[in-house]
Specification:
Number of strands: 20
Bound molecules: P-hydroxybenzoic acid
Strand order of the largest sheet: 6-5-14-15-16-13-17-20
Largest sheet: 8 strands, mixed
Structural class: alpha+beta
Distance between the termini: 34 Å
Radius of gyration: 21 Å
Number of helices: 13
Strand content: 25-35%
Length: about 400
């Protein structure tokens, strides 16, 4: 097979890039290790920046998102028994976020790919990039026991943190930055009406908690837990009773609980690899960077990589201009680091760190008090949350 851009990974980043390029007449092949159902079974956050929503529309896959996604003009931070609202719209001069599950978004992207006749190969085994330092890169893989090959101009690694793309880069050509947090998030999905139509991030002496949602009948709740905890230690009853203890009383009292339909623990990590390019391969999304989920930056940081790469590839194919190809890593990383800073800050502000000194705790309390005493501080939070410009 021959294509222009060979994409490793059929998650949201790979599919969105493929769809955007296809609309502009640039040919891509997407290789995905898993089945479509497996990809659609992954439950991830669903808070989309307005810039991300714009990209979905440009890719001609924004219709259902605009119809079924919920526009959120604000969210709350609960602390010390009270709930304070962050007025995203008012603080940013009119911007908001859209709550739309990653599962739904991925489904729309697959439908878009099908509609345009895009090539997405599922269950592609042992995918590997080759010839990245030359000008004829190619991808090899196995499908139904047969060896296959895709020749291309460029390779894009959208295959997540554990994918083969980043691992194919010689260690001496990259620099890795990492912070691992000493706790995880225990998340529960229930078929119940959400306790609040806006998200509530809560900080409490017992730890962080989050009330989120997927739809008017689907709630997503999280609590901070020690890394040593296992999912099966947490019954639904224990989960909800701990969650309620960390929320203001009126919120806990109003909460409708129900059996969990999904329950999992995710560790929290910040990670960035530099540069995001190796020869003719570019990295995008989780393949290059991970954030803790606290600021809802994960999917959005991936979308900004896709934005820069899409425009760089358009310039290359439509105008023969490679300046943005050469600038991709630096441009993408500048925004990636802003997302890193923001999610590190929100994580640090709202969680209980087991090894925190009295000094650390006092700074944390002061950070929170300052936030709600200054419109400038709140505006800074809001502009990061709705997404900084690309
Ligand atoms: C979620 O709904 O899963 C979610 C929302 C906001 C976050 C993290 C996760 O910051």
């Amino acid at each position: 097979m021959r294509t222009q851009v060979g994409i490793i990974g059929g998650g949201p980043s790979g599919l969105l890039l493929s769809q955007l390029l296809h609309v502009r007449g640039i040919d891509t092949v997407v290789l995905e290790r898993h089945t479509r159902d497996y990809v659609l079974g992954r439950i991830r956050a669903g808070v989309l920046e307005h810039g991300f929503a714009k990209l979905m529309r440009e890719a001609q896959v924004g219709e259902r998102m605009d119809r079924e996604g919920q526009v959120h003009d604000g969210f709350a931070i609960a602390h010390d028994g009270v709930r304070e609202r962050v007025d995203l719209k008012g603080l940013t001069g009119g911007n908001s976020v859209i709550v739309y599950g990653q599962t739904e978004l991925t489904r729309d992207l697959y439908e878009g790919r099908d509609r345009l006749g895009g090539v997405v190969v599922h269950e592609a085994e042992d995918v590997a990039p080759h010839g990245l330092e030359g000008d004829r890169p190619y991808l090899s893989y196995r499908k139904d026991g047969k060896d296959e090959r895709v020749d291309c101009d460029y390779v894009v690694g959208c295959d997540g943190f554990h994918g083969v793309s980043r691992k194919s880069i010689p260690k001496e050509r990259i620099r890795e930055h990492e912070r691992v947090y000493p706790f995880g998030w225990l998340g529960v999905l229930t078929r119940t009406p959400p306790v609040s139509h806006e998200l509530i991030y809560a900080t409490h002496d017992r730890g962080f908690a989050l009330c989120s949602l997927r739809s008017p009948m689907l709630s997503r709740y999280y609590i901070q837990v020690p890394l040593s905890d296992a999912v099966d230690q947490w019954s639904d009853e224990a989960f909800f009773s701990e969650l309620k203890r960390r929320l203001p009383e009126d919120v806990g009292a109003a909460m409708v609980t129900g059996p969990s339909i999904e329950k999992s623990i995710a560790p929290l990590r910040s990670y960035v690899v530099e540069p995001m390019r190796y020869g003719r391969m570019f990295l995008a999304g989780d393949a290059a960077h991970i954030v803790p989920p606290t600021g809802a930056r994960g999917l959005n940081s991936a979308a900004s990589d896709v934005y820069y790469l899409y425009h760089a590839l358009l310039d290359h194919y439509e105008r023969g201009d490679d300046r943005d190809i050469d600038a991709y890593s630096a441009k993408a990383l500048a925004r990636v680091w802003k997302g890193q800073r923001f999610s590190w800050w929100m994580t640090t502000l709202l969680h209980r760190f087991p090894d925190a000194s009295a000094f650390d705790r006092q700074l944390q309390k002061t950070d929170l008090a300052y936030l709600f005493s200054s419109r400038h501080a709140l505006a800074s939070l809001a502009e990061n949350y709705v997404g900084l410009p690309f």
